Amino acid sequence: MESLLRIDGLEVSFGGLSALDAVSLSVRPGEVLGVIGPNGAGKTTLFNAVCGFVRPAAGTLHWQDRALPWPRPHQLARLGIARTLQGLGLFPRLTVLENVMVGATRHARAGFASALLGLPRSDRDERLLRHRSLAVLRELGAEDAAGRLPGELPYGVQKQVALARALVGEPRLLLLDEPASGLSEDGMRELGEVISGLRERMSVILVEHHMDLVMRVCDRVLVLDFGKVIAYGTPDEVRDDPLVTEAYLGDEVTEGTPAPADTAAPAAPGSREESSRA
Ligand SMILES: Nc1ncnc2c1ncn2[C@@H]1O[C@H](COP(=O)(O)OP(=O)(O)OP(=O)(O)O)[C@@H](O)[C@H]1O
């Protein structure tokens, strides 16, 4: 298989605004692909197109080298595509373990999901699901939180739970939307190690404003600006590309420095960010 996911000529518009314009990319098996770009560049819209939350005006999608219609949200788990959201999206009244188990519907023929719906379930399926969910929490170092409610836990642990929920279905492609936001330096380092370790089992697309993390863990990086791909290559190639530096308001993109978009206060009148959202 040459690519797990390939997208060609993707176009998405909202009214008169072109949010994605002729975007093409591919993700190889076991690859971590970074997607970066200033606020409003189209990163989340790209995820939304892959996940069926927006309908592309044009573009084709290949999954495991086979042409497919753009997936609908309910087809993602069956294909093996999981996503974490910018927000955490955890259920506040379910324990951490239950939150993770909810993510495993791909593997659970019957079980927690059906239990929630009051359907007959197999005890064996639920035991397996519980076992696998605990194993993923352990892998991420959050096993101790299994019986707690999300609201009782530090933000960094809640983020681990959200990641565990995406991982427990053993996806082939994991879409990570700003997983480092709100994390401490230590949390970010651990996250980098986790993402690097996922390569053996899946491909990852990482949307992230923290350049140091992107440059450290990604095999290739795609840079969007105003919905267009302005650079696509290895971290070194992208870092040295003057178009990329320019897109970030002329600020130098260096290791250890978050992109300006990450630290920016609300957009100043007439700023690049404000005009991109106009
Ligand atoms: N549902 C929508 N309706 C109208 N415009 C939208 C919608 N979603 C996104 N947009 C616009 O499309 C463009 C791309 O937005 P998108 O959220 O994909 O950017 P982004 O790169 O993810 O930004 P950020 O880094 O701030 O999350 C922006 O101009 C945004 O205002």
TrEMBL record:
GO molecular function: ATP binding; ATP hydrolysis activity
Transmembrane segments: none
Comp. bias regions, Low complexity: 257-269
Short name of one Pfam family: ABC_tran
InterPro entries reported in the protein's UniProt record: AAA+_ATPase (IPR003593), ABC_AA/LPS_Transport (IPR051120), ABC_transporter-like_ATP-bd (IPR003439), BCA_ABC_TP_C (IPR032823), P-loop_NTPase (IPR027417)
Designated name of the protein: Amino acid/amide ABC transporter ATP-binding protein 1, HAAT family
PANTHER family reported in the protein's UniProt record: CONSERVED COMPONENT OF ABC TRANSPORTER FOR NATURAL AMINO ACIDS (PTHR45772:SF9), CONSERVED COMPONENT OF ABC TRANSPORTER FOR NATURAL AMINO ACIDS-RELATED (PTHR45772)
SUPFAM superfamilies documented for this protein: P-loop containing nucleoside triphosphate hydrolases
Region (Disordered) residue spans: 249-278
Organism, scientific name: Actinacidiphila glaucinigra
